[in-house]
Design a protein that fits this description.
Shape: elongated
Number of helices: 14
Structural class: alpha/beta
Oligomer: single chain
Largest sheet: 8 strands, parallel, barrel
Bound molecules: phosphoenolpyruvate, manganese (II) ion
Order of helices and strands: EEEHEHEHEHHEHEHEHHEHHHHH
Distance between the termini: 70 Å
Length: 360
């Protein structure tokens, strides 16, 4: 499908990146790459230096693996990408002709490391992908992109790989769609890729999470593929075979980005939605005017702002009414709480207004 944004000269959506979590042996790398090349992927991934949580785990084969990736390029014509976490990695990867670099989640978190990588890249015309930091700090993620832009890197992609959490969830790293969506709103020019493998941490959710990324208009996917996943030296549980990968990609439903002229109905619906949003804001403005009147009354009669019982009644009634309109309890509670908070703010202003205090 033709796509307005491009990365590596490709206007295709989804842009497909696949390959093993780690390069393990020459044979393993070449055989996976050959299978994936037949499927027409756009970029081959393999970790050479692996950030491991505990020492003593497999930490990657190091620079030797870069020779295998060079062979992948020669034998299959695929472009290749590796993770870099310091200046030494950058120099090594560029020396061996790696086409695209990526910055991992544990590195994006540290501005010193990102700056070291950016400095090592000054003057190099190589595309870079930036994973989100492990904590949901959008500014850090955007900041990493800016550090690269400042040294002249032109082609940059962002990767949503989910976020660490102390809570036990069904994900290995929780997808925080609102963070990724806000990234896309602030930087609509940046190519956005979903890492379904590191979000899921297991095989059975990969398809569902890949589809979710596509439905949110992500540009591509990065997925871990291994010829013998159960025997993989890292991230065995989340890797899939090239055949399963093919099924996953074939099953994706890719919906088009809206072309306003072409979708009159959508345009008409959007106009009505904008009108309703406008009405909601007008009503909220009027509601806050009443809150101010109440604030004046409470002030004159020395009544406290917060009336817990009244608030509870409002909330209960709203939840009931919301249910009849197919609005979730959670949504109604969040919405009403925000409105209530704003109402309290208006009343507090009235109660504590300096000029009124003088007249008391
Ligand atoms: C990886 O892609 O293999 C990896 C280590 O990812 P992340 O930085 O997202 O944990
Ligand atoms: Mn991995």
């Amino acid at each position: 499908m033709q796509h307005s944004k491009s990365f590596l000269g490709q206007h295709k959506r989804p842009f497909l990146i696949a390959g093993p979590c780690s390069a393990e042996t020459e044979g393993q790398v070449i055989s996976i790459a050959k299978d994936l090349a037949k499927q027409g992927i756009d970029l081959f991934r393999a970790g050479i230096w692996k950030p491991r949580t505990r020492p003593g785990m497999f930490e990657g084969v190091g620079s030797e693996g870069l020779r295998w990736l060079r062979e992948v390029k020669e034998e299959t014509g695929l472009k290749v990408t590796v993770e870099v976490a310091n200046a030494h990695h950058v120099y090594e990867a560029l020396k061996f002709g790696v086409d695209v670099l990526w910055i991992g989640a544990r590195t994006t978190v540290n501005p010193f490391s990102v700056q070291e990588i950016a400095d090592a890249l000054r003057g190099a015309n190589v595309p870079v992908m930036v994973k989100n930091p492990i904590n949901p700090d959008l500014e850090l993620w955007l900041g990493a992109v800016e550090r690269l832009e400042r040294v002249g890197i032109k082609q940059i992609a962002a990767i949503h790989r989910g976020f660490s959490s102390a809570a036990k969830t069904r994900y290995r790293n929780i997808p925080l769609w609102e963070v990724a969506i806000e990234f896309m709103r602030r930087r609509p020019d940046i190519f956005m890729i979903g890492d379904n493998s590191h979000i899921c941490g297991n095989r059975h959710m990969l398809q569902e999470v890949a589809q979710e990324h596509m439905d949110l208009n992500f540009d591509g996917l990065i997925t871990e593929v291994h010829c013998n996943p159960d025997e993989a030296w890292s991230d065995a549980k989340q890797q899939i075979t090239p055949d399963v990968y093919k099924q996953l990609i074939d099953s994706l439903v890719i919906r088009e980005e809206i072309d306003a002229g072409k979708f009159d109905t959508i345009e008409a619906l959007r106009v009505r939605i904008d009108e309703i949003d406008q009405e909601v804001l007008n009503l909220l403005g009027r509601r806050m005017g009443l809150a101010q009147d109440i604030g004046r009354y409470k002030k004159r009669n020395n009544i406290s702002i917060l009336q817990p019982e009244r608030w509870n009644e409002i909330l209960q009634a709203a939840v009931e009414k919301g249910r009849m309109r197919n609005l979730s309890d959670e949504f109604v509670i969040q919405l009403l709480s925000a409105v209530h908070q704003e109402s309290i703010r208006h009343q507090t202003q009235i109660m504590n207004a300096v000029e009124e205090k003088v007249t008391v």
